[in-house]
Amino acid sequence: MQNILFYIIAVIMLVACWRVATTKNLIHTVLAAFIVLMSTAAIFFMLNAEFLGVVQILIYAGAITIMVLFVVMLTTAGPRYEVTHDKKIKPSMYLSTIVVFATLVFLVSNIQWPMGTTVLQLEDVTETLATKIFLEYLLPFEIASILLLVALVGAVVLARKE
Amino acid sequence: MDTSLSQMLILAAGVFSIGLLGALTRKSVIIVVMCIELMFNAVNINLVAFAFYSGLEAIRGQVFAIFIMVVSACEMGLAMAIAILMYRNKGTVEVNKANLMKW
């Protein structure tokens, strides 16, 4: 049952990924990216990472997709604007992608991954996550918040009119 | 039958490779950054899958995934600001038009 669900999500995700990489209409590309991000959230829910799944939906599928849509509409000559591919160097790009994918699949199927005795339990994942972040990883958390602030100020400084 | 770790890893490898293909072939800066975002997503799937399949103490994988999300959100915001700036200065967002520093 879970396996069937996984295969359905995986197929949706890979097809949408392919649409992101190849569709010429920019708006369709961003909408396909939205589908990929939502199915990533579904994978997170399958893997007992409910907090990450919700964050994925809120931040990625919600905020970032809307922001990218805004930028597409601000920077191109309308949604019908099409970006052409560079035909001349395309085969080498396909080749390098296939090499990367083959290497990854080879490694995944040949390495003996260290497996735990049990999978992650369902009940208090978010609570454990909060404890880890706010006790063990407090300093990286604060640094990440400063990084977000700096990026926010930097984006405003870059994009405002002189 | 339940899903296994290798299935998740191969799915993430596929997403990563297609994201790489998009980042290499697309010409719009916005879509290149979007494809890099897909590659971040593949890494997050890997981390969460490792956290799930290697037992109780491995929730650190999810902590790392949160930090990756923070960093990629920063990167996305800055990249969109740069795309707007580039459109204002050059009138296009195609990457091959940004050749001012090309030797």
Describe this structure in words.
The complex is a heterodimer of chains A (162) and B (103). In chain A, helix 1 (2-22) packs antiparallel against helix 2 (26-46) and helix 2 (26-46) runs antiparallel to helix 3. Chain A is mainly alpha-helical and 162 residues long. Chain A is built from 6 helices and no strands. Chain B is an all-alpha fold and 103 residues long. Chain B is built from 3 helices and no strands. In chain B, helix 1 (5-25) runs antiparallel to helix 2 (29-53) and helix 2 runs antiparallel to helix 3. Chains A and B meet through helix 1, helix 2, helix 3, helix 4 and helix 5 of A and helix 1, helix 2 and helix 3 of B.
Quick overview:
The complex is a heterodimer of chains A (162) and B (103). Chain A is an all-alpha fold.
Question: Keyphrases for this structure?
Answer:
heterodimer, A: 162 residues, mainly alpha, 6 helices, 0% strand, B: 103 residues, 3 helices
Percent in strands of chain B: under 5%
Topology, number of strands of chain A: 0
Characterize the main sheet of chain A: none
The string of secondary-structure elements of chain B, in order, is HHH
Seen as an oligomer or otherwise, the chain set is: heterodimer
**Which outline of chain A best applies?**
globular
Distance between the termini of chain B: 57 Å
Q: Averaged pLDDT of chain B, please? A: 86
Structural class of chain B: mainly alpha
How far apart, in Å, are the first and last alpha carbons of chain A?
58 Å
The mean pLDDT of chain A is 85
Shape of chain B: elongated
What's the total count of β strands of chain B? 0
Secondary structure blueprint with pairings:
The complex is a heterodimer of chains A (162) and B (103).
Chain A: H1 2-22, H2 26-46, H3 50-75, H4 90-110, H5 125-136, H6 138-159
Helix pairs in contact in A: 1-2, 2-3
Chain B: H1 5-25, H2 29-53, H3 60-90
Helix pairs in contact in B: 1-2, 2-3
